[in-house]
Amino acid sequence: MMKKLAGLLIMIAFAIFSFQSRAQQVVASAGGYYEGDNISLSWTLGETVTETFTGDGIILTQGFQQPYSFYLQQILNIPAGWSGVSSFIDPMNKGVEGIFSPYESNLIILASMTQFYYPLENVNTIGNWNYHNGYQIKAENEFDVTLTGTKIANSSVDLTAGWNLIPVLSTCEVPVETVFDGFEPLEIVKQVAGPYLYWPAYNINTLQTLLPGKAYFVAANDAGTFNYPVCAKNSSYTSLQDKKPANHTPWNNLQYTSSSHAIAFPAVVLAASGIEPGDFIGAFTPEGFCAGRVEITNLNSGFALVAFGNDKTTALKDGFDEGEMLQFKVFRPGGNEEINLNIDFNPALPQQGIFTNEGLSAVKSITLDKVGMAEISAITAEISPNPSHGIFTLTMSFWPEKMQIHIMDSKGQILEVIKPGTILNGAAFSFDISELPEGIYFLKLVGSGFLEIKKLVIN
Questions:
Q1: How many domains does the chain have?
Q2: Pick from 72, 94, 214: which is nearest to 148 by CA?
Q3: What's the CA gap between 386 and 12, in Å, rounded?
Q4: How confident is the model over 318-331, as pLDDT tens digits?
């Protein structure tokens, strides 16, 4: 009995001597369970357990001899389609082929800003998972990936000037304004394959928070570093990022692809536009496919419309190609009206009205041109030959009153305005722009109750 008591006293003395002043405790020497922040420990009878917190590392010692590194797990939910993904742990097994091998039938592609893993084509330039990177991922069906690894010691992220794809190095959901508070080079933070963003210059924040396990596009005017804050124990947020807005328009459902172009509509522009709360604004490709949509709920605050690019991993065109002109329409549910939207863009932003992967544009002014949905859908316009040496023929099933033909360059600048006058419906009108250099141009057709944009190629 004395030997047992002496042994117990020695064990307690050793434990007290070993513990540091910071968050040290003897859990037990007879078995039980302990749970704390991001850690749970279980032990059995006769096994003394010491937990030691030294910075961000965790060492669990069983008895007096056996050091045991404690590993964390993170479950990454991968939805069907495109999304962003990252980790707040450093995985033990870093090879992306090994990580995703159980889900190879559902994984289509994984890509960083410069590298990609494409199982179908047996191409892997990523190699190992890097927690410093954010990734874009496309999946055939939803699946979950479980990563096992160690906690990341440094939660800072380095940004280069231009576009970056950032990870979320936080175990909790954090407000985007808090993360980038005081980070002066920031221009915009944008959801991967989604309509939500944070654009401080226009006081737009539909993104609200950054979610663990996701990745985000960030544009910066200069290189810099930001840090994720320590998670508050009582922090609680409600994110809408996994919920795509419902489609209450007659237009097609959106395809949320990996590339997109953000267009800011400042509040001061909306006030004089004639747009009403409840209206929907859509961005349309030259083929008439709706590739971006937003509902107007408040005219006193600005908003952004995100137009999505064509997905190169699919056979059908489901978004804008690089260099195509953005076209806009308004749908007003109350009167079942479709209204053409004429937009002038702020020249301070480089892309203006031309779609660019990860492009940025801002609206300078808006005018509405009302027309019934049945009337607009009945008008067809064809251009031939296209491409040509500069002589084109325009044929329209219906020639609107006071028709104008605007010749525009690839940046949306008007080079020439042609007024063909009165022309019979179905008749053709030829025009010569062969004096212009070879390249891509746009034909903007403007008439009473009609607006359409066509691409021209001079070769």
A1: 4
A2: 72
A3: 88
A4: 999 988 888 899 99
DSSP state of 174: E
Considering the domain architecture, whether residues 49 and 158 belong to the same structural domain is answered as no
Q: For residue range 287-311, what is the model confidence (pLDDT) as tens digits?
A: 889 999 999 998 888 899 999 999 9
Residue with the two structure tokens 């084109």: 392
- Alpha carbon distance 170, 209 (integer Å): 12
Last residue of a domain, one of 376, 404, 432: 376
The amino acid present at 133, given as its one-letter code, is: N
Judge contact between 230 and 198, C-beta under 8 A: no
Taking only the tens place, the pLDDT of each residue in 340-356 is 888 889 988 878 888 99
Tell me, what's the pLDDT at 449?
Answer: 66
Same domain, 222 and 82: yes
CA 221 distance to own-chain centroid: 18
Q: What is d(CA 345, CA 417) in angstroms, rounded to the nearest whole number? A: 18
Q: Does residue 423 share a domain with residue 359?
A: no
Can you tell me the distance from the alpha carbon of 343 to that of 366, in angstroms, rounded to the nearest whole number? 5
Helices and strands counted in the chain (H then E): 5, 37
- pLDDT-based confidence at residue 259 (cuts at 50, 70, 90): very high
Q: Do both 115 and 175 map to the same domain?
A: yes
d(C-alpha 442, C-alpha 436), whole Å = 12
The range of the structural domain enclosing residue 47 comes to 2-69
Query: Which residues have CB under 8 Å from 251's CB, separation 6+?
Result: 282, 290, 293, 331
Q: How confident is the model at residue 371 (pLDDT cuts 50, 70, 90)?
A: low
